[in-house]
Amino acid sequence: MTQETNTLSIDELSALVVKIFTHAGMSDQQAQATAKVIVSGERDGCKSHGIYRIEGCLRTIAAGKVEPRAEPELTDDRSAVLRVDAKGAFSPAAFALGAPVLAERARELGVATLVINSCTHFSALWPEIETLTDMGLAALAICPSYASVAPHGGKEPLLGTNPLAFGWPRPAKHPYVFDFATSIAARGEIELHRRAGTQIPEGWAMDVNGEPTIDPEEALAGAMLPFGAHKGSAISTMIELLSGVMIGDMTSPEALENLGNTTLSPHHGELIIAFSPEKFSAGRPGNPFDRAETLFDAILGQGARLPSQRRFAMRDKTMREGVTLTSDEMQSLQSFLS
C-alpha cells in the first residue's frame, strides 16, 4: 500500500524546522542556521543528513551536551587564521559568522583558514563548502567526529568518520563538490539500515569481537571500517591531527569520552580553508575557471559523472516542485512540537 505524501515548499519546511528548534529552546540565530543546513540536506535528497538529523539534535539539547542559545564570537588578528568560538553550540551559526570574513581574507591573501572551536557538529560539510564556492572561492573542510571507526588493521573504534569536503566554483553552474566520510559509509547510513530492518553491505563494519558483520545493530555496537584500507585510515588520522590536535580541540576519542556514547551529536572543532583561484593563478597563462571546465568536460566526455550531480539534479527538482515527505515523516515532525 502506497503511503500518503505531503509536499512542502523550501520556505514552508524551513519555517517548520525553525519552529521545532525554537520550541526546543534554541535562539533564533541558532535555529535559523541549523535549520538551513538540515533543510538543505532534505532539499538535495540526502536523507541521512536531512530531517532525520533533527531527532539527534533535539536529543543532544535535552542531554545538556550543546548550548542552544550561545552567541558565537569571532577573533580576527588580521592574519590568515581566523577563529570562531562556537561556545558549545551547533556549528552552523559559528560558520555563518566567520564565512564572510574568511572569504574576504582569502581574496586578499590568496588563502585563509577558519578555525571553529567548541562546536557540536551533526551535519555534512558541503553546505559550508557551497557557501564559499558561491563567493567564487575554492574550499576544503574537515572535522573529526567521535571514535566509531577502527584504524586499518585494528579492531576497536578509535578514529571518527572524519568527513572531508572540497569545492571548486563554476560560474553560472553548480560547483564541483565532493563530501565524503573517511569511513566506508557515513554512520547515518548504517542507522537508516537499522531503522529499515535491512542488512548493510559486506565490508562496512565489524562487531564488538572484531568480526565482519552485515547486521546494522552489531555494526553500530562495534566498529566501522575506513574506506580504502590503509589509505583511508591515514587520511582519517590526518584529519584528527589537523582539525583536532592542531587547532587545540577534541580528537574523536576525546569527543567520545566527553559524550559517553554515540547517540548524541559530537563536540569538537572544524577547519575550513578557502583559496582564491585568481590570486594563485595571477601572472600565469589562462583563466583558471576556463581551464577547470576543460577538465570537467573531459571527465564527462568519457561518460563519467561529476560528484554531487545527482544531488544537484534533486535540488533543481525540489526547488521547482517542493520537498515531498511521507505522512510518517510529517507526523514525526509534528511530534517534536508536542
TrEMBL record:
Family matches, as Pfam families = Ldh_2
Key words of the record: Oxidoreductase
Q: Which family does it belong to?
A: Belongs to the LDH2/MDH2 oxidoreductase family.
Protein name, entry field:
Ldh family oxidoreductase
Q: Which organism is it from?
A: Ahrensia kielensis
